[in-house]
Amino acid sequence: MSLYEKGHVIVMNNSNFSAPMGRPTIVAFVSGDVTGDRIMDHIYLTGTKTADSPFIQNITLHVRDGRTGAVTSIPLHNNVGYNPTLFLGDFTGNGVDEILIGMDTGGSGGIINYYIVSFLGNQAKILFDSDVYNNHFRYDVTYQDNYKVEVVSRPNNERYIIDLSKRDASYLKEIYDRNGKLISPITGFVDPLSGLYPVDFDSNGVYELLAYQKISGRYHADGLGYIMNTLGWKNNGFVLQEQYLGIFGAQL
After folding, report:
1. How confident is the model at residue 100 (pLDDT cuts 50, 70, 90)?
2. How many helices (H) and strands (E) does the chain have?
3. Confidence band, pLDDT 50/70/90 cuts, at residue 20
4. CA 44 to CA 237: how far, in whole Å?
5. For the chain, which terminal residue's Cβ has fewer other Cβ atoms within 10 angstroms, N or C?
6. What is the pLDDT of residue 23?
């Protein structure tokens, strides 16, 4: 068990707690005011552990009201994974913490499912769902002549060019002829979310989100870089603020 403090929030990662297999157990726990009454509430995830595996099923969010003791259970439609985590922070600017949930899928792309849940006034409302995000933020990755890859972000009509000319010669020979022309058309892809980090960029006490998505070429291990989107709360939803494309460097 690990324990650390983030502001006024105590966070415990309980994924290593022992419990009988086949029975739900607490796999993550935090304390903080999420109802807005300024009384500490207890927020935890339960799940069913798998024998001889860190894989957890039936992950469910629970909020125990600090004033009344009443417990509300909130099902999640993506409810299986590894290393479930909880983080409390104000993402909307209303002065009350929301609940950020993350759970690794364990796939080769390092994909993680995320939710942000508001429990203001003891009413559960999902403010962020990684499935919705992934369906909205779509990209086209297309290899071009002269050792270039074009990445187009559809939602905001932004275009980026990645220079492959410094890649290993054996890699380039599989794709281009001696004149830098594509031997055959190739398309890459951008994975769903592999990281969603709360960051207070402007130090005003309200968290923004920094979202990472990996850009791959012909296969997952052929990493070309990352799309990095910053999101902020506006008009009852998270909206894109800035977008960056980060590339990997090459040795001199």
Report:
1. very high
2. 2, 17
3. low
4. 25
5. C
6. 87
| Sole residue written with tokens 């707690």 | 17
> Strand, helix or coil at 101?
strand
Give DSSP secondary structure letters for 42-56.
EEEEEEEEETTEEEE
DSSP 22-87: TSEEEEEEEEE--SSSSS-EEEEEEEEEETTEEEEEEEEEEEE-TTT--EEEEE-SS--BEEEEEE
Burial grade of 192 (CB within 10 A; 0-12, 13-18, 19 or more): buried
User: What average pLDDT score do residues 69-92 get?
Assistant: 97
Residue 231 predicted with pLDDT over 80: yes
The pLDDT assigned to 41 comes to 98
With a CB cutoff of 8 Å and minimum separation 6, the contacts of 33 are: 39, 40, 41, 66, 96, 97
- Give the neighbor-by-neighbor strand order of the sheet with 139-144: 139-144, 148-153, 158-163
CB atoms within 10 A of CB 246: 10
Contact predicate 99/119, CB 8 Å = yes
Taking all residues of the chain, what is their mean pLDDT, rounded to a whole number?
Answer: 91
Residue 189 sits at the vertex; the CA angle it makes with 186 and 191, to the nearest 5 degrees, is 165
Is 51 exposed, middle or buried (CB count within 10 Å of its CB: 0-12, 13-18, 19+)?
exposed
| Mean pLDDT, residues 170-189 | 97
